[in-house]
Input
Amino acid sequence: MANKGKILVTGGTGYIGSHTAVELFNAGYEPVIIDNLSNSNIGVLDGIKAITGTLPTYENIDCKDYISLGHFMERHSDIKAIIHFAASKSVGESVEQPLVYYRNNIVSLINLLQLMPKFNINNIVFSSSCTVYGQPDVLPVTENSPIKPATSPYGSTKQMSETILRDASAADKNLNVVLLRYFNPIGAHPSAEIGELPNGIPNNLLPYLTQTVAGIRKTLKVFGNDYSTPDGSCIRDYINVVDLAKAHVCAIDRILEKKNKKNLEVFNLGTGKGVSVLEIINTFEKATGMKVPYEIAPRRTGDIEQVWADASHANKELGWKAEATLEETLLSAWKWQQKLQEREPKAE
Ligand code: NAD
Ligand code: UD1
Output
């Protein structure tokens, strides 16, 4: 396949970055990865190679390090666009260590934006989050729904990053920005060669659920069954990580083919369907034939009741649509958990 050009993927050994590197290869791009391995490991590169047949170019670079980042760009003078995944992403940790979060997530972004014009890189796709909407008044949320005050330093960094990118794109009309607001990414590559590698005890639902089924955790706690939802548990929009990765390729195609209508565009990336925690458990059991040991627990502080995306803007403008069924996605998450068990069969 013809090489459509080099795409710098920051945080490319991470969960979403690694799946995106695979889809970039599949689409004929050449992903070049930088990552400081603060939340991933080098073995992910072998997973990418097992799927695509190509070991991606990789360097261990910290995006907070302006000098090293500049030297990297100097060595790769033909980068067409950047997809910026590298960030710290744990909501709870961000409350305990806010300065670490502001420094990592904000300094990294500013470094990239200051270096881009020096190396004639005009295009950047940024990982934002549905967290910017808080608990929306109207569902589903569109890109024009109000941005609510952030409920954590992590959420603040996403809002601030969006503002920084908005201001930078207003000041420099040559700069093309795509803000992608992810809903809840779950699942793994169907090959089970790459997936999510949660550090320590997972906070997110899916890794906790699969670890419970694998016997690593005793019981999954369902945080609240007294919400104003049909079955009382919280509702989210769970998006398959491979579908999510493909949306990045659509965003890159759009800016490189100059099909963007403004030099800053925003897209919700979700399925458009809300699913409750109890529905996730039931569907997982149906898809895998495994029992999920769970109990109802008190609400988790800071949780919002329900949120799901209106993804029609991405459907229409990016020509992208979430395709995987929830069953397929949950099965992929379980296959990945089993693969991890084969590698490290430790139980707590
Ligand atoms: P991840 O932690 O798996 O990947 C992030 C990668 O960035 C890791 O490999 C980490 O080592 C690397 N990294 C962090 N700081 C770095 C730095 N200063 N320099 C170089 N590398 C650095 O997380 P993910 O789930 O793949 O998330 C990717 C992006 O998407 C993040 O910006 C995250 O905030 C955003 N996001 C994630 C979710 C989610 O649920 N996973 C939801 C919304 C938005
Ligand atoms: C959280 C973050 C969000 C971030 C996302 C990805 C908050 C308030 N939001 O989203 O900013 O972008 O993670 O990292 O922290 N649940 C259980 N039991 C569990 C774990 C989760 O019942 O053991 C429920 C939660 O109550 C929630 C749903 O599962 O209703 C999804 O939770 P989670 O995976 O943590 O994601 P969010 O809270 O939606």
Observations:
- The pocket of nicotinamide-adenine-dinucleotide (ligand 1) is lined by residues 10-11, 13-17, 35-40, 62-64, 85-89, 104, 108, 127, 129, 182, 185 (CB under 6 Å).
